C-alpha cells in the first residue's frame, strides 16, 4: 500500500487594528506561486514548533508585528501536490501598527472585512476568507 | 501587563467504520471532569509533537486503533481555567475495528451521525459535534 499523503498544519492570523480592519499582505514575485494574491500573514510550522509559537514567529517575520492571539477564526483544507494542508486561522490583535514586510510580500493593506471581496486571493483560501467575513456579518 | 492566557491545541478524530458510523468513547470515572460524557478519541499534543503524529498516538492509546487521516472535520474553541483550547477535528478511517479502551474510557459505540443527539457530550463540544452532523446532512 503506498504511503498516504501527509497532513500538514499551516497557521494564519486575522490581525484586527483599532478600526476593526484586518491586515492583508500581497505576495511578491519572489513567490513561486500566486504572486499578486493577497493573504493573511502566517505560514507553515517549523518541525516541533507549537502552533501558537509558529504563528507569532510567522507574523513577526512577514509583518514585523508582535501579536496577542484572541480567538479561533476557523479552519479549512486544501490540497498541495505533496500534502493535505490544514489551515488553522486565529484572530489576533497587533501590539503595534508599523508593518515591516519581508521579501515574500511587496504591499500591505488594512481592510474592513466588508471589502474583502475586492481582493484577489490564492485558490482554495479565498472562499474560506469570504465565508469568514460572512460569519462575522460583514458581507451577505 | 499580565501574560495572556495561552492557546493550546487539542486534536480529535472522527473515525468512520465501513457502515459510516463514527466511534464514540465514554469518559470513565478515572477522569476528573465529565465522567459519563461521550467523545471522539483524541487529546492534547505532547510538547514538540506534530498534530497528525499526536492524533495517531491518541487514537492508538484510547482506542487501540491505527488510522488513516482523510479530511478536516472542523475546528472549535472552548475555555479552560488555564488555557484557550483550540480543538481541531479530522475525519479518519480506522485500519481495523477491534477497539481496545484505556482506563480513560469505560465504553464505546459506533454511532451514525444521525443519532449523535441521543448522547451526552462535554459542555462546549457537544454543540460543535451536532453542528458537524448537520453540515454532513445527517441531522436537520
Structure description:
- The structure is a homodimer of 140-residue chains.
- Chain A is α+β, with helices and mostly antiparallel strands and 140 residues long.
- Chain A has one domain: Nucleoside Triphosphate Pyrophosphohydrolase (Alpha-Beta Complex).
- Helices cover 16% and strands 38% of the residues of chain A.
- Chain A has two helices and seven strands; from the N terminus they run ββββαβββα.
- Chain A has helices at residues 51-63, 126-135, and strands at residues 7-15, 21-27, 38-39, 42-44, 67-79, 84-94, 105-112.
- The longest helix of chain A has 13 residues, at 51-63.
- The termini of chain A are far apart.
- The mean pLDDT of chain A is 95.
- The A-B interface holds A 4, 6-9, 47-52, 68-69, 71-72, 74-77, 84, 86, 88, 90 and B 4, 6-9, 47-52, 68-69, 71-72, 74-77, 84, 86, 88, 90.
Mean pLDDT value of chain A:
95
User: And the CATH topology of chain A?
Assistant: Nucleoside Triphosphate Pyrophosphohydrolase
Shape of chain A: globular
Oligomeric composition of the shown chains: homodimer
Low-confidence stretches of chain A at least 5 residues in length (pLDDT < 50)?
none
Largest sheet of chain A: 4 strands, mixed
Helix and strand string of chain A, N-terminal first? EEEEHEEEH
- β content of chain A, as a range? 35-45%
Helix count from the secondary structure assignment of chain A: 2
Spatial strand order of the main sheet of chain A: 4-1-6-5
Gyration radius of chain A, in Å: 15 Å
| Fourth-level CATH superfamily of chain A | Nucleoside Triphosphate Pyrophosphohydrolase
SS-derived structural category of chain A: alpha+beta
CATH architecture of chain A: Alpha-Beta Complex
Q: Helical residue percent of chain A?
A: 10-25%
Most extensive interface: pair and counts?
Answer: A-B, 23 and 23 residues
Number of strands of chain A: 7
Number of separate structural domains of chain A? 1
State the end-to-end distance of chain A.
46 Å
CATH class of chain A: Alpha Beta
Amino acid at each position: 500500500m503506498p504511503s498516504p499523503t501527509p497532513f500538514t498544519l499551516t497557521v494564519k492570523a486575522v490581525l484586527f487594528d483599532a478600526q476593526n480592519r484586518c491586515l492583508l499582505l500581497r505576495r511578491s514575485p519572489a513567490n513561486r506561486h500566486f504572486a499578486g494574491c493577497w493573504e493573511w500573514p502566517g505560514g507553515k510550522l517549523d518541525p516541533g514548533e507549537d502552533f501558537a509559537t509558529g504563528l507569532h514567529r510567522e507574523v513577526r517575520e512577514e509583518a514585523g508585528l508582535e501579536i496577542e492571539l484572541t480567538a479561533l477564526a476557523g479552519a479549512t483544507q486544501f490540497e498541495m501536490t505533496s500534502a493535505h494542508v490544514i489551515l488553522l486561522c486565529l484572530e489576533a490583535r497587533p501590539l503595534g501598527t508599523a508593518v515591516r514586510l519581508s521579501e515574500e510580500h511587496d504591499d500591505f493593506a488594512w481592510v474592513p472585512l466588508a471589502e474583502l471581496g475586492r481582493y484577489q486571493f490564492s485558490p482554495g483560501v479565498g472562499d474560506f476568507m469570504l465565508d469568514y467575513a460572512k460569519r462575522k456579518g460583514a458581507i451577505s
